[in-house]
Design a protein that fits this description.
Layout: E1 4-14, H1 24-34, E2 41-42, E3 49-53, H2 60-80, E4 83-86, H3 103-112, H4 114-117, E5 123-129, H5 133-143, H6 147-154, E6 159-160, E7 163-164, H7 170-175, H8 190-202, E8 216-218, E9 224-231, H9 236-258, H10 268-281, E10 286-288, E11 295-297, H11 298-308, H12 310-316, H13 319-332, H14 335-346, H15 349-361
Antiparallel strand pairs: 1-3, 1-4, 1-5, 2-3, 5-9, 6-7, 8-9, 10-11
Length: about 350
């Protein structure tokens, strides 16, 4: 069975006021001490962020347990530093982001100016193992139309600098300012994929392979396809649903490739429209259906994704849990809906942040 690993970025905030706090250095040191030097946490572009990565897992129950454990550990370390962590993809409150001291981060700040300065966004990356780069690129070519659905399911960033953006995932709009971010055209082979990556780096605009910010890519560190399109989810159950669907997409695509099927030739331009629609309305309105290219109710499109990967989920034993997870998400709503409901109840963005931090702590 294919392994799955998850990387989550979390927002560091003041435990009382909810304001973002530039405390990643202190929190990382405390986390390392708690772990006796073997910490899973890393710094990110801004000092108001913290990232962790799970181990590769085959059982989704194990993945769920590990995500909850590391969220709780992050909360403990942050509390020792006088802060809290919140699984929010953007800060609801106004913030002046602080670039970290890492040399790479400083280079990004010099090279990309305001684009880098404003990138205080928290995403969720899902890694699914593949047998080879050739299989991985065949997967990338076939999962493209479904990536906006994963974005919609994860929407958790309705607020930006103290105001409602009218988007469910404003993070994705900010992230899209990077020159290599977003949907891509078909590659056709691993050779052409690597040629394209080298051509992009050869322009001198990008520093290295780590800056290939496609919505999904071959990982430059692991033998995986890396899904990078999603917001960090408020509820870890939604993260597990994303991981389950991602593995289903990879397995379904790989089977189609081995059977001689051909990927959908939908253009990157159309996929950009689908990305925008998913970011704008999330699961509350309509999404562009990958089969028709036309707007349809978001719940119908999400169920179409589930049907698309049904056979793979049946074989891995994940179908029932995926069905239940999707049903719960549709009833409860994504993080974007929950944040807006918290604001409607409290009339305070500070309450939104502190309540989301409490939910992240578990």
């Amino acid at each position: 069975m294919r392994t799955v690993g998850v990387e989550e970025e979390l927002l560091l905030v003041d435990a009382g006021s909810g304001d973002p706090r530039a405390l990643s250095t202190a929190v990382l040191a405390l986390a390392e001490r708690r772990a006796e030097g073997d910490s899973v946490f890393e710094s990110e572009l801004h000092d108001q962020q913290l990232e962790f990565a799970t181990e590769p897992r085959t059982a989704m129950a194990d993945l769920a347990e590990e995500i909850r454990r590391w969220r709780a550990e992050a909360a403990h370390s942050a509390a020792e530093a006088g802060a809290a962590v919140a699984a929010l993809a953007t800060s609801p409150l106004p913030v002046s982001p602080a670039i970290g001291e890492d040399e790479r981060h400083r280079w990004l700040a010099r090279r990309f100016g305001l684009t880098a300065q404003e990138q205080l966004t928290c995403g969720c990356h899902v890694h699914v193992s593949v047998e080879s780069d050739e299989e991985g690129v065949a997967v990338l070519d076939r999962v493209r139309p479904w990536l906006p659905v994963l974005l919609a399911l994860s929407g958790n960033s309705p607020f930006w600098q103290g105001q409602d953006t009218s988007y469910d995932s404003y993070r994705s709009r900010v992230w899209g300012r990077w020159p290599s971010a977003g949907p891509v055209e078909l590659f056709g082979s691993a050779e052409r994929y690597h040629q394209q990556v080298e051509a992009l780096i050869g322009t001198g605009v990008l520093r290295d392979k780590g800056m290939i910010y496609f919505d999904a890519r071959l990982s430059h560190r692991y033998p995986t396809v890396e899904f990078r399109v999603a917001d960090v989810c408020l509820d870890p159950a939604d993260t597990v649903l994303l991981a389950t669907l991602a593995r289903g997409l990879v397995e379904t695509a790989a089977r189609d490739w081995r059977a001689g099927g051909r990927p959908d030739p939908v253009t990157a331009g159309v996929l950009r429209m689908a990305d925008w629609q998913a970011a704008r309305s999330g699961m509350e309105g309509r999404l562009i259906h990958p089969r028709t290219g036309r707007p349809e109710p978001a719940a119908d499109v999400a169920h179409a994704l589930l049907d698309h990967v049904r056979e793979a989920l049946e074989d891995s034993g994940d179908l029932a849990s995926a069905q239940a997870g999707l049903r719960t998400l549709l009833e409860r709503g994504t993080g974007a809906r929950i944040q807006r409901e918290l604001l409607a109840d409290s009339d305070s963005l500070r309450t939104v942040v502190t309540e989301c931090a409490a939910r992240t702590r578990g």
